[in-house]
Amino acid sequence: MVAESSCRQQPPHSIILEVDRRGFDRETLLVNWLNEILYLQETRDEGITDSEILEISDVHLKARLHVERIVGAGVSSRL
After folding, report:
1. Cα dist. 61→11, 21, 69, 79 in Å?
2. Alpha carbon distance, N-terminus to C-terminus of the chain
3. What DSSP letter does each residue of 22-78 carry, written as one string?
4. Bridge partners, 78 (sequence order)
5. Which pTM was predicted?
6. Is a pLDDT exceeding 90 seen at residue 57?
7. Residue 79: CA atoms inside 13 Å, Cβ hemisphere, count?
8. More confident residue, 79 or 46
9. Which residues are paired to 65 by β-bridges?
10. 15-55 residue pLDDT tens
C-alpha cells in the first residue's frame, strides 16, 4: 500500500512515494507489486520515472517510487 504520509513534493511535478507490499510467496508478491503500480497509473494518472528497492524478501517488498503526473491521461482523453 502507498504510504501517503511519506509523500514529498519534488520540483517541478515529481512526487516520491514509499510503497510497502506483501505476498504469501514470491509470485503473489510480484502480482501485488505490479497491481500497485497499475493502481497508481490508472487511478492517480501517475507514471513511475524511477524506483529504489529499500527492503526485499520472498514475501515483502518496500520501495521508494518517483512518480510524475501523466499529461493527458484522464478518462476524457481515453474516449
Report:
1. 27, 5, 24, 35
2. 29
3. E-SSHHHHHHHHHHHHHHHHHHH-EEEEEEEEEEE-SSEEEEEEEEEEPTT-SHHHH
4. none
5. 0.68
6. yes
7. 3
8. 46
9. 17, 51
10. 899 999 999 999 999 999 999 989 888 888 888 889 999 99
